[in-house]
Amino acid sequence: MSRVRGLPENGELVVCTVKSVKNFGAFVTLDEYDDKEGFIHVRDVATGWVKYIRDFVREGQKIVCKVLGVDSTKGHIDLSLKSVNEHQKREKIQQWKNEKKAEKLLEIVAERMGIDINKAYKQFGDELLDAYETLYSAFESAVAYPEDFLSEFEGKWVDTFMEVAKENVAAPMVQIDGILEMSSSAPNGMDLIKTALMAGLATAEGSAVEITCVGCPRYRVVVTAADYKEAEDVMKTVSTAAIESLTSNNGSAVLKRESK
């Protein structure tokens, strides 16, 4: 039960279902906008000349498109398929799946409270959407930051919402990485580097840290944590310990962060 209403904005990525395919383009429905109809002109289906449009789209297919223009008076929505890369497609589909899951979870909350879903949205669902933009983000926040969630919201529904969240949603995680460049001219240089890396890992204290060789003398350090501050703190602790271990044995080491 999607709560999104109205029309999408220019530049927005939307999940669509292909309704019909013609030689001149494809008509689709927008899954997140009450199945409003959009149109993809053949020139916006793929880069280059499209000889057979059905080589790219077919009826019933789920696709991700970029909104090129919206005529609010006529309700026309022009879309582009070729403007969406694979990374954007995967991210958008995952976001859409997460939100569909969150809507089902809200139905569970409503059922446990003995109220219908519309009343649930009226009592707290719409408030959560205003605060978090998506329902899934609200469920994630309830799991990852329960104290903050409880301090921000109150009512009989909160305990049930928290209960359902903990049962069905994993706390969100972030991941950062960096490259340790390490070298030693000592006869046992590789052993010293290995010892330094182990010294770094020893400081992780249960945090999720992985170090892999990406071509000597470069070693990738990957840190997974609940938030970026925690991840950065762990990265600093691990890399500092490794660097100090190697430099104390007359080696050289430096951490380099790669820009994304």
Walk me through this protein's architecture.
The protein has 260 residues and is α+β, with helices and mostly antiparallel strands. The chain has helices at residues 86-113, 117-132, 135-144, 146-152, 157-168, 189-202, 228-247, and strands at 13-22, 25-30, 36-41, 62-71, 76-80, 174-183, 208-213, 218-225, 252-256. Strands 1-2-3-5-4 form a five-stranded mixed beta barrel. Strands 7-8-6-9 form a four-stranded antiparallel sheet, with helices on one face. β7 (208-213) and β8 (218-225) form a beta hairpin.
Keywords summarizing the entry:
single chain, 260 residues, five-stranded mixed β-barrel
Mind sketching the topology for me?
Blueprint: E1 13-22, E2 25-30, E3 36-41, E4 62-71, E5 76-80, H1 86-113, H2 117-132, H3 135-144, H4 146-152, H5 157-168, E6 174-183, H6 189-202, E7 208-213, E8 218-225, H7 228-247, E9 252-256
Parallel strand pairs: 3-5
Antiparallel strand pairs: 1-2, 1-4, 2-3, 4-5, 6-8, 6-9, 7-8
Helix pairs in contact: 1-2, 1-5, 2-3, 3-4, 3-5, 6-7
- Output the structural class: alpha+beta
Quick one: overall form? Answer: flat
- Strand order of the main beta sheet, please? 1-2-3-5-4
* Proportion in helices: 40-55%
Number of helices: 7
Order of helices and strands: EEEEEHHHHHEHEEHE
Low-confidence segments: none
Biggest β-sheet strands, sense, barrel = 5 strands, mixed, barrel
Using the CA coordinates, give the radius of gyration.
25 Å
Short account of what is shown:
The protein is built from 7 helices and 9 strands, in the order βββββαααααβαββαβ. With about 260 residues, the protein is α+β, with helices and mostly antiparallel strands.
